[in-house]
Amino acid sequence: MPVIELSAGEWLSIITHIKQWVGNLLRAKEERKQESKDALRSVIKAVRETTLYLHRLREGEGKSLDMERELSHLWTDLSFRVEDLKLNKLAERCNLMGKYWADPTLFDPAFLDQANERLADVEKLARLSLEQNSG
């Protein structure tokens, strides 16, 4: 097999290319980590927004179709973002919340009573994932 001789300039070019590639790879990992943090923080914000709406319902304020539509879109979008991060358990819970707010009548009436507990579980899972992605 013939030996290929490389000039000093060619070696320098290869090394420079590898250095750029590694730098791009490290930046991509950091960008991915930031995307993960942003998505998980958005889940926590959605939990808080939903908790506030449930509180208003318990206090006797009437249902708001606009708010329920907003919550459905919010949770559904989050399910996609979190699924892209391969956090499947959290994505499933976000998807379930999106389905619920799209039409709460399709769910067991007890679901609303359990929603705060489930929201706490979703927030806990998001926080745990956030801690794991911070390191």
* Shape designation: elongated
The topology string of helices and strands comes to HHHH
Distance between the termini: 47 Å
Report low-confidence residues grouped into runs of 5 or more: none
Taking the sheet with the most strands, its summary is: none
Mean of the pLDDT scores? Answer: 80
Multimeric organization: single chain
The count of β-strands is 0
What is the radius of gyration? 23 Å
Task: Tell me the fraction of residues in β-strands, as a range.
Answer: under 5%
Count the helices. How many? 4
Helix content: over 70%
- Which structural class is indicated by helix and strand composition? mainly alpha
Topology:
Elements: H1 8-58, H2 65-84, H3 88-102, H4 110-134
Helix pairs in contact: 1-2, 1-4, 2-3
What does this 3D model show about the protein?
The protein is mostly helical. 82% of the residues lie in helices and 0% in strands. The chain is built from 4 helices and no strands. The chain has helices at 8-58, 65-84, 88-102, 110-134. The longest helix is centred in the N-terminal third of the chain and has 51 residues, at 8-58.
Q: What's the quick description here?
A:
This protein has 135 residues and is an all-alpha fold. It contains four helices and no strands.
Output the keywords.
single chain; mainly alpha; 4 helices; 82% helix
